[in-house]
Design goal:
- The protein has a domain of 75 residues: SH3 type barrels.
- It starts with 14 loop residues before the first helix and ends with a helix.
- A five-stranded antiparallel sheet has the order 4-3-2-1-5, covered by helices on one side.
- The protein is built from eight helices and five strands; from the N terminus they run αααααββαβββαα.
- Helix 1 packs across helix 3 and helix 1 runs antiparallel to helix 8.
- With 230 residues, it is of the alpha+beta class.
Length: 230
């Protein structure tokens, strides 16, 4: 016998609830694909707008087929960049680069701008540079508060010698949210650094999303089921 205090039986969602669930599931599926296509399309258009005006009209396909093909400027830019990189690896290319850098180093303002851009480019794009390989947890800015970080390397030289520790020091980059390119370079004793199993990419997603996107997150089907239960 049911009493007024008994929980009612769970009701199946109505038509409006099922439509809302399907709509939200569709958004979860379409949004990443649509935004990715839109971003790539916009980037190709921007590159075409910068590169194609520099290309002689004789070499532009629009003169022969009558329509403007988006992405041609991007292809030309990629081919040009590959050729420049191939030449720069040779003796003549290295000599020209060295001569140009010596010339730039004599210009006060241009020298500072060029050196800063060069350091950023080498850090981001150079294949020989090491990248973060492990995500970790550290207690920052005080004990009891945990932050996600990326292990960079082991401290050496003066930093290790002057630090008041008897063991290894690990350099950890602690990023900020939602912009992980800025943050703090901190040195922790090795025993205070907790390595994580998640990849660096998953940890970066967690930082960018302010904790909303976890590794192995819910699929669109899981989202639909959660909505139906509301």
């Amino acid at each position: 016998m049911n009493t007024p205090f008994d929980d009612p039986l769970p009701r199946r969602p109505g038509l409006f609830g099922r439509l809302r669930s399907s709509f939200l599931t569709g958004i979860v599926v379409i949004a990443p694909v649509g935004l990715t296509i839109w971003l790539l399309w916009s980037v190709m258009g921007w590159v075409d707008g910068v590169v194609l005006p520099l290309v002689p009209s004789t070499f532009q396909p629009e003169q022969y087929i009558g329509i403007n093909l988006r992405g041609v400027g991007l292809i030309i830019f990629l081919l040009f960049t590959i050729v420049v990189g191939w030449v720069a690896k040779g003796i003549i290319g290295r000599s020209l680069i060295g001569y140009g850098e010596n010339l730039v180093n004599r210009m006060p303002v241009v020298r500072s701008i060029y050196s800063g851009i060069k350091q950023i480019s080498e850090t981001v794009f150079a294949q020989s540079e090491r990248s973060f390989e492990t995500a970790c947890l550290v207690q920052y800015p005080r004990r009891g508060i945990w932050a996600i970080g990326f292990i960079s390397t082991v401290a050496k030289g003066e930093i290790l010698n002057r630090a008041e520790t008897s063991g290894k020091l690990i350099s950890v980059f602690v990023p900020t949210t939602p912009n992980p390119t800025s943050g703090f370079l901190l040195y922790f004793p090795e025993e205070d650094v907790v390595e994580l199993d998640m990849s660096v990419e998953d940890a970066a997603k967690l930082v960018i999303s302010a904790g909303l996107v976890y590794p192995n997150g819910k699929t669109p089907i899981d989202v639909a089921e959660a909505v139906e239960q509301d």
